[in-house]
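Input sequence (459 aa), recorded before submission:
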Amino acid sequence: MIRYVAGLDKGKGLYFLFVKSESKTAGGLPARPVLTSYYKSHHFRARPFDPYNVYTSPTAAVLCADAFQSMYSQMLCGLLDRLDVLRVGAVFASGLLRAIRFLQLHWKQLAHDIATGTLSSKITDSAIRDAVAQVLKPDPALSEFIASECSPGDWAGIITRIWPNTKYLDVIVTGAMAQYIPTLEYYSGGLPMACTMYASSECYFGLNLRPMCKPSEVSYTIMPNMAYFEFLPLDSAAANADAPPQLADLAGVEVGKEYELVITTYAGLYRYRVGDILLVTGFHNAAPQFRFVRRKNVLLSIESDKTDEAELQRAVERASELLRPWGASVVEYTSQADTRVIPGHYVIYWELLVKGGEGGGWPGKEVFEACCLEMEEAMNAVYRQSRTADGSIGPLEIRVVRGGTFEELMDYAIARGASINQYKVPRCVTFPPIIELLDSRVVETHISPACPKWSPRPN
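Predicted structure, token format:
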């Protein structure tokens, strides 16, 4: 980064970092995300001073599992150090937008704490209170400034208005996170967005050697010392479904082709299919460079959640059972990840068939709300934790469309060149005209009335 941005050792980074609650496997082994493991490790807790990596957030705030207390204290400390902040970031773009939404909702209390030099009674974690007490002093001028920026309700460029020395945003905006780019541009006043690395819980893959390039141009250079990397060509996998896969190594990939990433790691994973689809864009010396295209088979994603077609199908089937007493059934469905509000949430479009006769009738509001919750109960543990413990995903929404809507959807696709013989209803839609068509046919909208069950303990 210092090759592109000067003076990063002269200020601080406002990074919103969080741990997630741990769970245990049925055999009693601890299970937690890789970043939670890192933040709780000695490497993070006792890290030596590095002028290029000074955070405004106290370590105690990062390690607090209560999402509200962690966010509140990190935002407060970021406001106190606002003139020292040179970069603002989070792991995912959605996390940074959640922080901005938090500021919109709680700026009055934050300004009050800064004016009085006292921490809100809602913060009960003793380690956080001790850490914040070292930096929180009465500052009426700063409090008035925050109020003047937030009270009008104009949030355009709020990041650079409150943190005027910010040089760039440090967030992942590739893959599913690309949907957040326009919103980040709105809040930041067009600051550059740096995607610095490509990694997962399984392995550290590569670096972006041009971190200040446009998000659409991001390519990652694979670091061959991190693991043994192989690549499954997508075209050969599809053409020879019954034949053994023919894998390419790092030296055998071709520019312009897409591959599924396969890794063998020092930790013991052997030819593990990560599920990431990558496009070869070039080489740095002899090391190939890849653009992240998408997650394989993932339909919906708001943050770290990943819902595939089979899981969505099971959730719809479970929820549709609640319609049976009314003689109703789901004829067709599709979905979208709606990120126009913060936090984002799943939207499921249903077209219903309601039979006449005994037991027939249109289900009431309570039935549809129960269907929303039933779908959420059917989702995976990562989704339910994000909904229940973290608040990073909003309530699931069912939008009931009028009869014949999915026929109109097919007609639209055929008019654009799709084959009538090969057409299948898309289980997730992202194309704005299709979303507009669906929304224009909505007759009822229902929101999940409660959070799904989630526990850090195994079922």
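Checked by second reader. Residues 93-116 form the longest helix (24 residues).
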